Structure formats: structure tokens, C-alpha cells
Amino acid sequence: MSDNRTKSVFKEGAISSVFIGESIAKHQTKTSIGAHNIFLGQVRADVIDNKIIKAIEYTAHEEMANTKFHEIREAAFEKYELTCMHIYHSLGVVNAGEICLFVFVSSPRRKVVFKALEFIVEAIKEKVPVFGKEIFEDNSHQWKVNS
Amino acid sequence: MKIKIRYFGMLTEVTGCEEEIIDFPEVVISELLEMLFIKYPKLKDKKFQVAQNNELVPFKTKISSKEIVLLPPFSGG
Fold first, then answer.
1. So what's the pLDDT on residue A7?
2. Which of A67, A87, B15, B69 could staple B51 via S-S, CB 3.0–4.6 A?
3. Are β-strands A10-12 and A84-95 bridged in parallel, bridged antiparallel, or unpaired?
4. CA distance B16 to A44
5. What is the ipTM of this complex?
6. Where do the structural domains in chain A lie, given as residue ranges?
7. 3-state class of B31 per DSSP?
8. Element of type H or E holding A41
9. Chain B residues bordering chain A (beta-carbon distance below 8 Å)
10. What is the separation, in whole angstroms, between the first and last Cα of chain A?
11. Does residue B14 contact residue B75 with C-beta atoms inside 8 Å?
């Protein structure tokens, strides 16, 4: 069963471990699945010029981002034998140590989910118009650059 | 023709706004950008891409939408 409908991806604030746990639990009824793989992006407290990043505030061109997330989903289902896929990205302020990106793929077999997860995460970083403002402890900021 | 121009991320700090309506007679994105560079000289130093109809387009593209979006480098995740 392929579950490839368009879904809302953005969540306000951090993605909680409770939400992640419940997402995993929901898959217990999908018994054709033999392997899950999960990517969790966490806000890092980088130190730049002796200043510590305390949070990232995310904004996005939401309409274009949702189009791109949908295209990435379609491409991943086309390329890999996936049973289901879920992507959640934060908007607004996410503190250091909290989760800002949650990608969850499931398949009957394990090898597929390793490849699919990397494909999806890299595509999100490259193609989705999301912007991170890194806020330091003194409330000054700089704009995040993906490496 | 009236075009809505939207700015995101660090570009909003250069323009001081998230969107504006500009009455613009020309038909190619690069011509619109030239006008914006006069209005916002610092914009010229910024890295950005342009999207219309939710797709990135080259600067030589004809404007075919009522909304043009300027996007700095993506930094999701």
C-alpha cells in the first residue's frame, strides 16, 4: 500500500519526542513493513566568535516549499519501494538541542530505507525554500548557511 | 503592470519589507532586478534566486506571474 498523499509538513516550533514516538506507534498496524529509518535534525549550539547559538528561527516560502516537499515525496516513491514516508519541518523558534526536522521512511526491506532516507534529506536541504536565522545568546543573529 | 515582489530570509533586512507592489512596465526578470538594485543597492551584494509560480527561474525569464519571489540560499533542516 502506497501512502503518497500531500500532507502538511510544517509544524510550529520544535518537533517533540512524544510526537515522534506516536508516529512510530501508528505504524504497528502496517504489518507489511519490515524496516523503518528515521532522520532527526537537531539545532546545534555552534560557537561563533565566542557567541553561542541558542536557537534557530525558521521561515519559509510555504507555498513553494509544500510544492517541493510534494515533488520530493513523489520522486522518492518512484525511486524506492517505500510503504510510507513522513516529513515534518519546524517553523518559528527551535531551541538548541530540540528537533527541527523529522523524516520517517518505511519499507518491507531494510536496504531501501537507508538509501531513501539520505535521498530525501539531501533533497530537502537543496530544494526547499526554508531559511534559518541563528539567534545568539545576546539576541544578535546571523543567517544559517547549509554546508 | 502591477507585480507583487516578495522577499525572504536575510533579504528582508536589505529591503526592510517582506513584500511590495511595484508598477513595472518591462517583461524580463533581469530588468526588474536592475530596478530593485537602484532602490536597494545592497541587494546587489546578496546571493539570491528568483522564483515565479513556485519554480526557480533564470533571470532572463519573462515575467509571466503577478508575483515574483526573491529567495536567499536555502538553509532548512
1. 62
2. B69
3. parallel
4. 29
5. 0.93
6. 10-143
7. helix
8. strand A35-42
9. 6, 8-10, 51, 54-55, 69, 71-77
10. 36
11. no
Q: Say which CATH class A10-143 falls into.
A: alpha beta
Cβ contact A61–B71 (<8 Å): yes
B70: nearest CA in chain A?
A61
Which pTM value belongs to this model? 0.93
Q: Which residues pair with A105 in a beta bridge?
A: A37, A85
Q: Which domains does chain B have, with CATH numbers?
A: 2-71 (3.10.20.30)
* A88: its cell numbers: 515534518
The C-alpha of B70 sits at a distance from chain A's nearest C-alpha, in angstroms, of 10
Q: Which candidate, B73, B29, B1, B54, places its Cα nearest to that of A130?
A: B73
The length of chain B is 77
Nearest Cα residue in chain B from A100: B77
DSSP secondary structure letter of residue B69: E
User: What angle, 0 to 180 degrees and rounded to 10, lies between the N-to-C axes of helices A110-127 and A62-79?
Assistant: 150
Distance from C-alpha of B40 to C-alpha of A18, rounded to nearest angstrom: 46
